[in-house]
Write a structure and sequence with these properties.
The protein has 203 residues and is of the alpha/beta class. The strands form three sheets. Strands 2-1-3-4-12-11-10-7 form an eight-stranded mixed beta sheet. A two-stranded antiparallel ribbon has the order 5-9. The longest helix is centred in the C-terminal third of the chain and has 12 residues. The mean pLDDT is 97.
Length: 203
């Protein structure tokens, strides 16, 4: 069973449907016992960094997320869920994120001919050792919707990168913690394969 963390941050139903399409049981929940009893956990999210962290704390989910990570349970952050794994974001300078991974969340720089937020498909440069991307073709295309991006501190954490005005660390992996800035649940067959790889993970 996969627990999808519910903190009122959108796009949860599409993640649930994608997981169920792949034949895995999914439950949308903010119940600590249910989350800790699950095999794997997904933290999706759209919206602002500060509002999301406020909701996570309001629902008492911060320590639950730390406990999931400490228990070596496979954990996947999606879109805003990736950004929340870091301590700070330029979007909400007053807010403190989870600080599970090291890096900066920065605004995508303005550039001629590029719109911000980035909305649409972009290809990835994948680290061949990245477990989430096992079995995918070289430079797969995935779907992004974001104005802020990750600049990871540790190059070894970077599972995939892309370029949109600047170099963007689009996916990270460290131990049992995985995250994607893009939306695998909206990325067609490539995205389903990424989710399938997560479902099949043994940490």
């Amino acid at each position: 069973m996969i627990a999808i963390v519910d903190y009122d941050a959108g796009n949860i139903k599409s993640v649930e449907k994608a997981v169920q399409y792949l034949g895995e049981e999914a439950v949308i929940t903010r119940d600590r016992d249910v989350i800790m009893a699950s095999d794997k956990v997904i933290l999706p999210g759209v919206g602002s960094f500060g509002d999301a962290m406020g909701k996570i704390r309001e629902y008492g989910l911060e320590n639950v997320i730390y406990d999931v990570v400490d228990a070596d349970k496979p954990f996947l952050g999606i879109c805003l869920g990736l950004q929340l794994l870091f301590k700070t974001s330029e979007e909400s300078p007053e807010a403190t994120g989870l600080g599970i991974l090291d890096g900066e969340i920065l605004r995508i720089p303005d550039a001629p001919g590029l719109k911000i937020p980035q909305i649409g498909w972009n290809n990835l440069e994948v680290n061949p050792k990245a477990r989430l991307f096992k079995g995918l073709p070289e430079n797969p295309y995935v779907y992004f919707v974001h104005s802020y991006y990750l600049k990871a501190k540790n190059p070894d954490d970077v599972a995939a990168s892309t370029f949109y005005s600047t170099q963007i660390h689009a996916s990270v992996e460290r131990g049992n913690v995985f995250a994607c800035q893009f939306h695998p649940e909206k990325s067609s067959e490539v995205g389903l394969k990424i989710l399938k790889n997560f479902i099949d993970l043994e940490v």
